[in-house]
Amino acid sequence: MAELPPPEECANCGATIPRDAKACPECGADERTGWRETSLYDDLDLPEEAFADDDADAPQPVPRRTVNGIAWYWWMAALCLVLLLLSTLL
Question: 10: buried, middle or exposed (CB in 10 Å: 19+, 13-18, 0-12)?
């Protein structure tokens, strides 16, 4: 695929772009980050739902049970270890 020349003006910040530039000298925008008004992804015909930022359907994280920031099973392991040590002393 032949590389297209940059636009005369950056669509991101409005700065003038030199003819042989690979990126905008002001903001750093380039072909991949969006200085073109059209993209190779424009013809994908994705449904509008693909662009929705609604996270209502996203699974919610399971709250972790902690005591003072330490998981409950570490507290149980420590308790078992203390009981084991106490039983060997008696």
Answer: buried
8 A C-beta contact, residue 35 and residue 28: no
Question: What single-letter amino acid sits at 28?
Answer: G
pLDDT tens column, 21-67? 888 888 888 877 766 555 555 566 777 776 666 666 667 778 778 87
Does residue 39 come out as left (phi exceeding 0), alpha (psi in the -120 to 50 range) or beta? Answer: beta
Q: Please give the residue that has the higher pLDDT: either 19 or 87.
A: 87
Q: Which residue has the tokens 């636009």?
A: 7
Which residues, 6+ apart, have CB-to-CB distance to 29 below 8 Å? Answer: 10, 11, 12, 13, 23, 35
Structure tokens at 36: 């073109």
pTM: 0.36
